[in-house]
Design brief:
heterodimer, A: alpha/beta, Rossmann fold, Arc Repressor Mutant, subunit A, six-stranded parallel sheet, 10 helices, globular, B: 434 residues, Heat Shock Protein 90, five-stranded mixed sheet, 15 helices, 5 strands
């Protein structure tokens, strides 16, 4: 597989140059942007494989970029980065269409790996995002789901919960595969299916849960 | 003290309770099996030794006791005294030999029982007496076991004696025991009255008078001694309570003071850090000693707060990042505080010994239980070869969890990292938010 072409979107120049220096050999960083509108323009022009996107941007937040680009270029994939770990921001950018979320404290090797995964169409969950999802999907199915809606989307299977638990405990996909006696491919498909549920579920808990966390 | 090896063995022990000979004997020396005990683990020991089913051995023992008019019981107690427990080579008797207080107690109790039986025999107790005589030895033997046995032996005895204590009103003097005394007095008066009215000729009562005089003489002669024995027993109980308290204090000191001292030795070249550590420890110890407040519960109100606290403390003390994830939350109660204390200890161990660059701490609150997983990708260790004095794992983690009905599992091997899984059932009282 060719090295993925990456655009960095972050309002901190220092962080961008740091990531560029670290990732330089493993991915091809084709451009940088520091705010929402410049990012949308740049991505439309360069059409990278992956956009590394800070959740917090001065002009509207990361999800504004995802929504704008998805409308015109659905093939561009987003990996969200955040230092704050505030769940409502993370959930918002994932619901907007990002294919994963990692913390800024992630090691270079892991970040490069995450970029490759997202470029290949997989989902990437950090331990913290896995915790958020487990939390948000806790309990039974939502009571107020519209009947026409697919109830499958409202619940995690027990296998998906197991995979998420192990991710939250810091396991890599390879370690999860060994622990659960399944292939890495199967782990990836579980995570992708969780991502789909996270993006499509109308589960009222998701919003309520994020709102509660904002108050806390 | 729990030993990791024993804990491991208990967890994976499996017995088919029935079937006469379901495996071969282990061929080693005869040992008691306290892990599978009803009394002292003698039957289970014989069963494992010769390859019988423990249940079969127990049935044979009960039948033998019935046939031998009660001699089975003292034999059992003797076996308990003289056969060492699994994993040890010294029996209880070798310890009891040097315990003069215990021997005095045993002799005292035995003599008390002998006098009671003599009197009962004089009044013609029938079959009961022939059954009771062997129990003189049982009582003496049990007294020695009580004083010198391992904690699990003492636990069994306490369990067996509990109903006895309750029957004599030892547990709580309540209105019921007062009623019992009144009824006993009324019955006694009625009985005496009946005796006197039935036997108009007092001559028949003369032997009874003699017996009463003998009893009075014995009480006068030996009463003070028995009183002292009773007092010794009370002291014994207090000493046990103190010993348990000491175990708690030892665990606490190990958790905080010894850990900090180890850290200070490592950072000896950094005076600033040493001062900071010493201050931190001083604050912690003061609040625990003088304000009766555990440093753990200073700010912890919920499980998530507690996990965050552990994360902060470990990161600031050991400089190892802790990736903490909490799913759900609920208010703390005593059990969950113990769970957090155990998790803290496991995290400290990982920070100090594993050499891992990051520790992951995962807590999940579910409706029925709260589980915490502490995991590192560090050195790992050989579970079988943890020395007895490194009791962080055994006492602080495993002891804490099992005392409150939780479980602790350690998965590790050299080079494979370590994973400590702690689970504590939620009591119905700790209602909270999930």
């Amino acid at each position: 597989m060719s090295t993925p072409r990456v655009v960095l979107v972050d309002d901190h120049g220092l962080f961008r140059s740091g990531v560029r220096a670290e990732l330089g050999r493993q991915v091809e960083v084709v451009g940088e942007a520091d705010d929402v509108q410049p990012a949308i323009d740049l991505i439309g022009e360069l059409l990278p494989d992956v956009v590394l996107l800070d959740v917090h941007l001065p002009g509207g937040g990361g999800q504004a970029v995802v929504q704008a680009v998805k409308a015109s270029h659905p093939e561009v994939r987003f990996l969200a980065l955040s230092a704050s770990d505030a769940p409502e921001d993370v959930i918002a950018v994932i619901r907007a269409g990002a294919r994963g979320y990692v913390t800024k404290t992630i090691s270079t090797a892991e970040l490069a790996d995450a970029v490759r995964r997202v470029a290949a169409g997989d989902a990437v969950f950090s331990h913290r995002l896995a915790g958020f999802v487990l939390d948000a999907f806790a309990g039974g199915p939502a009571a107020d789901v519209k009947p026409a809606f697919d109830p499958e989307l409202d619940q995690l299977t027990s296998r998906e919960r197991e995979v998420l638990r192990l991710i939250a405990q810091g396991y890599t996909y390879k370690e999860i595969a060994r622990e659960l006696f399944i292939s890495v491919k199967t782990v990836e498909s579980h995570v992708s299916s969780v991502l789909r549920k996270l993006q499509l579920s109308t589960r009222h808990q998701l919003t309520r849960w994020a709102a509660e966390r904002r108050l806390a | 003290m729990e030993h990791p090896e024993r804990w491991h063995r208990d967890q994976f022990r499996q017995h088919g309770p029935f079937g006469l000979r379901h495996r071969h004997g282990h061929g080693g020396p005869l040992r008691r099996e306290p892990a599978d005990r009803l009394g002292g683990g003698v039957a289970a020991g014989i069963a494992a030794w010769r390859g019988f089913s423990p249940t079969a051995v127990r049935i044979v023992f009960v039948l033998a006791t019935l046939v031998s008019a009660g001699w089975g019981l003292p034999l059992y107690v003797l076996a308990w005294l003289f056969i060492p427990a699994v994993g040890t080579d010294a029996n209880i008797f070798s310890k009891a030999r040097n315990d003069t207080g215990g021997i005095r107690l045993a002799v005292g109790l035995a003599s008390l029982l002998i006098f009671v039986l003599l009197i009962a025999g004089a009044l013609n107790g029938g079959w009961f007496i022939s059954w009771a005589w062997p129990q003189v030895f049982s009582v003496a033997g049990l007294a020695l076991i009580w004083r010198n046995g391992a904690p699990e032996d003492q636990g069994t005895l306490r369990h067996l004696l509990e109903p006895l204590g309750a029957a004599t009103g030892d547990v709580k003097p309540s209105r019921r025991s007062a009623w019992r005394l009144v009824i006993a007095a009324v019955l006694l008066a009625a009985g005496l009255g009946w005796l006197f009215s039935a036997h108009a000729s007092l001559a028949l009562l003369r032997p009874l008078g003699g017996v009463l005089l003998v009893i009075a003489a014995i009480v006068l002669a030996l009463g003070p001694w028995w009183l002292r024995i009773a007092r010794d027993l009370a002291l014994e109980r207090q000493a046990k309570a103190r010993a348990e308290e000491r175990v708690d204090i030892a665990a606490r000191v190990h958790d905080s003071v010894l850990q900090t001292l180890a850290l200070i030795q490592r950072r000896a070249d950094d005076p600033q850090k040493v001062i900071q550590l010493a201050r931190l420890q001083e604050r912690e110890l003061r609040s625990w000693l003088f304000e009766g407040r555990s440093p753990d519960d200073a700010e912890e109100l919920t499980v998530a707060d507690g996990v965050r606290q552990i994360q902060q403390d470990i990161e600031s003390r050991y400089g190892v990042p802790v990736e903490a994830v909490t799913v759900g939350d609920c208010d703390l109660d005593d059990n969950l505080a113990a769970l957090l204390a155990a998790a803290r200890e496991a995290t400290v161990n990982a920070a100090k010994w594993s050499g891992a660059s990051v520790i992951s701490l995962f807590a999940e609150v579910e409706p029925a239980e709260v589980s915490i997983v502490v995991r590192d990708r560090g050195k790992g260790f050989d579970l079988e070869s943890v020395p007895e004095d490194r009791k962080g794992l055994a006492e602080s983690v495993y002891g804490r969890m099992t005392r409150r009905g939780g479980t602790a599992t350690v998965t590790t091997a050299p080079g494979e990292g370590t994973k400590v899984t702690l689970k504590m059932p939620r009591s119905s009282l700790s209602a909270g938010r999930t």
